[in-house]
Specification:
Layout: H1 6-14, H2 17-28, H3 36-51, E1 55-77, E2 82-84, E3 90-92, E4 99-107, H4 113-118, H5 120-123, E5 127-131, H6 144-153, E6 158-162, E7 186-189, H7 191-205, E8 216-237, E9 244-250, H8 260-278, E10 287-293, H9 301-308, E11 315-321, E12 330-333, H10 338-351, E13 355-358, H11 368-371, E14 377-382, H12 404-421, H13 433-439, H14 442-450
Length: 458
């Protein structure tokens, strides 16, 4: 099996190239899909591609349904009167419509099917609140969009998504996807605000307030949903073969933070791995195409654009990087592509590095645009002790949370894996769309259909 040369490993372990790019991306600030900052971030990635000696570096533009955040507030009245209007307390969720609503608050806990069913009689005409947590006993992650749609379908007039991480501030994240804008106003609130609201709702349900009345929550959401454009940053290296190994990430980030781990780190890793492989370009048997997608956070638009404009047979496999600098412990979601899993396992063994893998087909992340078509694609991230997204999708996803040594370690492992994919046999077999469809867990089938993202004809 082809090994990455020692001199390239040494280069990876001492390089500042990726960390400098990551620093510049976080300094851009707002890289929301369709924003000036997103384009500036993509342009900085192209500069890095060119500095690494890659060819055909440039931008690929496409249309998206844009979303712009205004100011939002949440007021509570009843036994306790409070107003929250600061961004460290409450923020709108992308894909929400503008609007004002005022209604009793119903807390549905973690937003599982069972909790929504138990609260069904109370949700009509209410503001529903769900935690960002997925219970450990649950067999899969519950996306915020599922909780939002479950609330709207049961007659809720507003939605509050409360963080379950202390001090991490309000969570953001897309709730409209391909049905945007969504039907009801939606906001994220910090754990601290959410805990107070949950306490007030619980007290009312227990009948300890006068008349047992639920607290009333008033939401005032200001935002714009308008068409705009986004960009992918692209480059290539290796022989000019028709088929290519794709190394990808997304350069956009939610506008409330610097998007350091989600996903400036992924974009920096794509450029750094490209630079490393350029030093052994003559060894490669298959072209490597590097792409940092735009608009991942609001519906995977950049990945879909690439998948839909590239013939299926020209994509050998896809290694997608997302949230890959929270530690140096690599995790690979294989989506059932055993050949790709085996390659990463071989790399981990060669470097005596820890590796976690998962086989579940997941519709979260840019790799999904390819997986749904049967193209071998994995998502590489890193594991940490933090629950859920950790700092991701909050104001706190900043450079100071990350470590350059972790970035170097992940770059080494990913470069070694992509090197193996691009030398000799790729070790990944395409599947039919039907076999992928039939292998998707029932819960994810429901989520995809709920969000208007089910790609298969019935």
């Amino acid at each position: 099996m082809t090994e990455l040369p020692d001199r390239v490993v040494g280069d990876a372990r001492t390089s500042d190239f990726g960390w400098n790019l990551l620093t510049d991306l976080t300094d851009v600030g707002n890289r929301m899909a369709g924003s000036t900052g997103e384009r500036r971030g993509a342009e900085r990635v192209v500069e890095a591609f060119e500095a690494a000696g890659l060819r055909n570096a440039g931008l690929d533009e496409f249309e998206i349904p844009g979303w712009w955040r205004g100011e939002s507030s949440l007021s509570v009245s009843g036994a306790v009167e409070r107003r929250h209007e600061n961004s460290h307390e409450v923020i709108a969720l992308p894909g929400t419509p503008s609007g004002e609503v005022s209604a009793p608050l119903v807390d549905v806990g973690d937003g599982t099917d069972e909790e929504f069913a138990a609260a069904e009689d109370d949700l009509d005409g209410a503001v529903a609140m769900a935690s960002s947590r997925t219970p450990e006993s649950h067999d899969r992650w519950i996306h915020r969009m599922e909780k939002y749609v479950a609330a709207a379908e049961r007659g809720a007039v507003g939605f509050v998504f409360r963080n379950h991480i202390e001090g991490a501030l309000p969570p953001t994240g897309e709730i409209g996807y391909h049905n945007r804008p969504g039907p009801i106003p939606a906001v994220g609130v910090s754990k601290e605000v959410g805990d107070r609201l949950a306490r007030l709702a619980e007290t009312a349900e227990g009948g300890d307030t006068e008349g047992g009345d639920r607290p009333t929550v008033s939401l005032d959401v200001d935002c714009r949903n308008e068409p705009t454009t986004s960009v992918n940053a692209v480059a290539e290296l290796g022989p000019n073969t028709e088929e290519a190994v794709y190394l990808t990430a997304h350069v956009d980030a939610h506008d409330v933070s610097d998007g350091a781990n989600d996903n400036g780190a992924g974009s920096a890793l794509v450029a750094e791995v490209g630079r490393l492989l350029a030093t052994v370009e003559d060894d490669l048997d298959t072209r490597v195409r590097l792409v940092t997608f735009g608009s991942e956070e609001i519906g995977l638009w950049g990945a879909y654009h690439a998948a839909e404009t590239t013939p299926r047979e020209e994509i050998a496999c896809v290694v997608n990087l997302d949230g890959a600098c929270s530690s140096r412990n690599l995790r690979v979601g294989t989506n059932g592509f055993d050949g790709m899993r085996e390659t990463f396992e071989a790399v981990a063994d060669a470097f005596d590095a820890p590796l976690a893998t998962g086989e579940t087909i997941s519709p979260h992340g840019d790799q999904w645009a390819f997986v749904q078509e049967g193209i071998p694609a994995v998502m590489a991230s890193t594991t940490s002790d933090q629950s859920g997204r950790g700092w991701g999708h909050t104001h706190a996803d900043t450079l100071d949370k990350l470590d350059s040594r972790d970035l170097r370690e992940v770059a080494t492992l990913v470069a070694a894996a992509v090197y193996r994919f691009a030398t000799g046999e790729v070790g990944a077999t395409h599947r039919s769309r039907e076999s992928v469809r039939d292998a998707i867990d029932e819960g994810y089938v429901e989520e995809l259909k709920t969000g208007g993202r089910w790609p298969y004809d019935e």
